[in-house]
Amino acid sequence: MAHSRFFNRQQIEDLIAAGQTIIIFQNNVLKLNDGWKDKHPGGRLVLDHMIGRDATAEIDAMHTQDTLRTMERYRIGRVVGPWQNLKPPIQGGRFETPEEVGSNNHNAAWDADPQDSGIDCDTSSDSSSIDCSPKLQPYKRLPHNFGPAIERLDSAIDLPTTLPSENTACSPADYVANTVQDEIDVDLAKYPALDFDTQRSIALKFQALHQRVKDEGFYECRFIEYGKEMIRYAGLFALFILTLRQGWYFVSACFLGLFWHQIMFTAHDAGHRGITRNITIDTIIGIFIADLCCGLSIGWWKSSHNVHHLLTNAPEHDPDIQNIPLFATAPAFLQNMKSSYYDNFEFLWDRVAAIAVRIQKYTYYPIMAVARFNLYALSWGFLLSKRSHTRGKTWWTRPTEIACISAYFFLYFYLLLYLCIPTWTARAVFLLTSHLVTMPLHVQITLSHWGTSTADLGPGESFAQRQLRTTMDVACPEWLDFVHGGLQFQVVHHLFPRVPRHNLRKLQVLVRKFCAETEIEYLIHGFVAGNGVVLSRLEQVAEQARLMAECQKHMAATGESGLH
User: Fold this and answer.
1) What pLDDT, on a 0 to 100 scale, did the predictor assign at position 96?
2) pLDDT tens across 247-281, in order?
3) Residue 212 CA from chain centroid, whole number
4) How far is it, in rounded angstroms, from Cα 276 to Cα 269?
5) 544, 557, 447, 490: which is closest to 142 by C-alpha?
6) In a designed cystine with 533, which of 355, 451, 489, 545 is the match (CB 3.0 to 4.6 A)?
7) Comparing C-alpha atoms, which of 292, 330, 312, 319 is closest to residue 537?
8) What is the value of pTM for the model shown?
9) 8 Å CB contact between 106 and 89
10) Which GO annotations describe the biological process of this protein (predicted)?
11) If we measure between CA atoms, which residue out of 300, 297, 303 comes closest to residue 405?
12) 178, 177, 174: which is closest to 161 by C-alpha?
């Protein structure tokens, strides 16, 4: 039988080189080609990013047991022993067919140029033991006359500073490469080693933790908690209607904004199938709340959010941090960069971006205050694009979303703003106030990632370590949980996305023990301190942009690096 076939590493590489979507799950080789990828409810991209990888942890975290059982039909065989991840083609991994390998005398397992891959592999005689860790590149040092500025940066942010050396040019590309490498070096020193044995040990311990999460019922939804929340939602909506009828337009707008703020937490749960665990029912709940009640596409949210969960804080891949020209949270954005999520759309580092990033610490809160308007644009942009077209059991979602969002715009902008509010001044106040009140939600969303690492440590890093390294929790007393809506437990949520948010506080205890056992730092700050971390990160990248501009300006004026 084909299912009993065993594949070695070269055979897997050959299949990928031939354009096959090959993913490893529990040592099974899954073939998920285009015909099925178009029907995947989570989108094509999440599969593309798992090609050549052991995606057991990712698949297990994102799917129910019923869904996992269906994967047997896509199994074409097994691999022998623990699998060591390859870099997927969408992330720059290079694979060649046997004919190309023969003509180029090149092994497709690794990138064509080790310097490009940043991977240094030491293979012992035992083929099951390969040490693949990011290769440390030699630095190109900055001119010495930038020292004072770097010292100011170094005192604010705990990152290493490169020191000047003789006969070194300072181009923008060199500066960005050095700064990116600095962040990698910090994480390499701070987190468990990337050798195969260490990361496999972490993966196995996480697998055991996940089994405990299942056995102890953390995936069971406590519907009584949603009953309590529905009372709060209904109360806020009733107050919005009551004060609107009284002509208290400013107060009414505040209650509507609070209604939006609170009810979107449940849409988040539905998007992760954390309520009923039935994709159809949870999708209907999500469309009703997000599209009809709030004017935002749940389909757009799921499309970007699924990628965000798998490639958290990856500048080239995570759409949640791709905010150029307004914001840059990673040094990688200080140059032109293509986004895999937006079909290789190129984010330009131009004069507008340079100016905006230099002041991003000061524009952060004002832009967060009006961020909801941008979500309208992103929602419509998604629904009108090919990315929203779905096949299979979710074919109906796009037309339903378009109808519901259209209904929202009719209800809000025509019936409410135009017919119920008498003057243009009052309409403008109501429009801005209702949207400004949702600002804490947007701050909350960015808080958990914008201040954390954006370094790519390579395909050898385990799922659990990457999530813990790139995500931060917000500490708050239990009685304030309803304000944060469960989003303050982002570390726990990123490890177990389908766990209902009402169970996250209890699950946090187990995650902390896991971190202590694996020696992975658990990132957590209070709300105020967390805001400080984000602002410091924005200031850090702004300073990096200034230093790069000074470096470029000096070279353009003198033709020298500034070294003496």
Assistant:
1) 82
2) 999 999 999 999 999 999 999 999 998 899 888 99
3) 26
4) 10
5) 544
6) 451
7) 330
8) 0.85
9) no
10) sphingolipid metabolic process
11) 297
12) 178
DSSP state of 293: I
Q: Place 386 in a pLDDT band, splitting at 50, 70 and 90.
A: confident
Pairing of strands 6-7, 75-79: parallel
Helices (H), 56-134: 56-62, 65-69, 98-104, 114-117
Delimit the CATH 3.10.120.10 region(s) of the chain. Answer: 2-117
Two tokens, residue 467: 């999530």
> Nearest-5° angle of CA 35, CA 37, CA 39?
85
H-helix or E-strand spanning residue 524: strand 524-526
How many other β-carbons are positioned within 10 Å of the β-carbon of residue 219?
16
Question: Element (H or E) spanning 130, and its range?
Answer: strand 130-134
Integer Cα distance of 108 and 92 in angstroms = 13
Residue among 465, 457, 464, 473 nearest 523 (CA)? 473
Residue type, 111: D
- Residue 399, both tokens: 């037309």
Pick the CATH number of 2-117 from 3.40.50.150, 3.20.20.80, 3.40.640.10, 3.10.120.10: 3.10.120.10
Average pLDDT of span 189-210: 96
